[in-house]
C-alpha cells in the first residue's frame, strides 16, 4: 500500500498550476542550493524524530512490556510483520509519505495556491482518511494491512486463497484505544511541523532568499562590472545593378 501512496503523491505533486502573475524572483535552479537542502533535510530530520517518538511511546506502554517481538526466525518476510513494533513504524512512516508530499506542495509565489492542485488534494484526503481509520479502529479495513487485527477478522491476501492467521504468540495486533490516539496525535503534529517548516522557514524566510540570491549572483572575478557597449556596425552600401532585361541587345 505504501507503494501506491508514494506513486500517487509523486505523480500528482507536479500537477500544481503556475501562478497567474510572474514572481519578482526566479525559482531556485540549484539542486544543492540553500532552499532545496533546507527543505529536504529539515523534513527528513523531523520525520526521523517523530518515528523515534512513536517507538519510544510504544516502549513506554505497560501492556507492551510482555508483547515485544522476540522471534529469531526471519526466514519468512510475510510473517515477521505481525508485531507492534512493525505496526507503529507502518503507521508513522506511512503517513510521513503523505505529510511530506503535502509540505512539498507549497509553491511560494511561483505556483498557484496549494489547494488548486485538485488531484493531489483528492488523493491526500483519501489516503489520510484510510490511514486514520485503520489507526483508530479495529475493523476489516485495518486488517487489510494486518493492523489492529486478530484471527477472527483477518482477510486473505491477494495471492492466497485462505486468510492467513496472525503470526505471533497472542494472535492479535490490536492496540489499546488510548495508544491509538497517541499515534494519531503524532501523525497530526508531524504533518503540521513539516508543513510549517517548508512554508515558514524555507519559503518565507528572507535569510534563505538572500543567501540563495548571493550564491546565484557571485561575480566571476574581483574586477568591477563595466557597462555593456554594443559593437559598432559599419553601414553597408548596396550597389545598384542593371538587370539583363534592361540592357540593349545587339
How would you sum up this structure in a few lines?
The chain contains seven helices and no strands. With 250 residues, the protein is mainly alpha-helical.
Q: What attributes characterize this protein structure?
A:
250 residues; mainly alpha
- Give a count of the beta strands, DSSP E runs of length 2 or more: 0
Secondary-structure element order, N to C: HHHHHHH
Average of the residue pLDDT scores: 80
Largest sheet: none
Uncertain segments are 218-225
The structural class is mainly alpha
Assign a percent range to the helix content.
40-55%
Tell me the radius of gyration: 30 Å
Give the terminus-to-terminus CA distance.
94 Å
Shape designation: elongated
Q: What percentage of amino acids are in beta strands?
A: under 5%
**Number of helical stretches of at least 4 residues:** 7
Verbal overview:
With 250 residues, the protein is an all-alpha fold. It has helices at 2-12, 34-59, 84-104, 118-136, 140-143, 177-203, 206-216. Helix content is 48%, strand content 0%. Helix 1 packs parallel to helix 3, helix 2 (34-59) packs antiparallel against helix 3 and helix 3 packs antiparallel against helix 4. The longest helix has 27 residues, at 177-203. It is elongated and about 100 Å long. The model is unreliable at 218-225 (pLDDT under 50).
Amino acid at each position: 500500500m505504501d507503494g501506491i501512496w508514494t506513486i500517487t503523491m509523486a505523480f500528482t505533486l507536479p500537477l500544481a498550476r503556475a501562478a497567474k502573475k510572474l514572481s519578482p524572483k526566479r525559482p531556485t535552479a540549484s539542486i544543492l542550493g540553500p532552499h532545496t537542502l533546507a527543505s529536504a533535510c529539515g523534513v527528513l530530520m523531523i520525520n526521523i524524530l517523530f518515528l523515534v517518538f512513536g517507538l519510544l511511546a510504544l516502549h513506554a506502554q505497560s501492556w507492551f512490556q510482555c508483547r515485544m517481538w522476540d522471534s529469531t526466525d526471519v526466514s519468512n518476510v510475510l510473517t515477521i510483520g505481525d508485531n507492534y513494533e512493525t505496526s507503529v513504524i507502518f503507521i508513522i512512516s506511512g503517513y510521513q509519505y503523505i505529510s511530506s508530499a503535502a509540505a512539498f506542495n507549497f509553491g511560494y509565489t511561483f505556483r498557484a495556491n496549494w489547494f488548486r492542485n485538485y488531484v493531489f488534494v483528492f488523493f491526500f484526503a483519501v489516503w489520510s482518511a484510510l490511514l486514520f481509520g485503520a489507526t483508530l479502529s479495529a475493523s476489516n479495513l485495518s486488517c487489510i494491512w494486518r493492523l489492529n487485527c486478530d484471527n477472527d477478522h483477518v482477510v486473505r491476501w491477494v495471492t492466497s486463497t485462505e486468510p492467513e492467521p496472525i503470526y505471533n504468540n497472542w494472535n492479535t495486533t490490536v492496540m489499546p484505544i488510548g495508544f491509538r490516539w497517541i499515534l494519531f496525535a503524532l501523525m497530526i503534529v508531524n504533518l503540521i511541523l513539516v508543513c510549517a517548516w517548508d512554508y515558514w522557514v524555507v519559503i518565507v524566510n528572507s535569510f534563505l532568499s538572500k543567501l540563495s540570491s548571493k550564491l546565484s549572483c557571485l561575480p566571476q572575478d574581483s574586477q568591477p562590472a563595466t557597462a555593456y557597449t554594443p559593437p559598432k556596425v559599419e553601414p553597408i552600401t548596396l550597389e545598384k545593378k542593371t538587370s539583363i532585361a534592361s540592357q540593349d541587345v545587339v
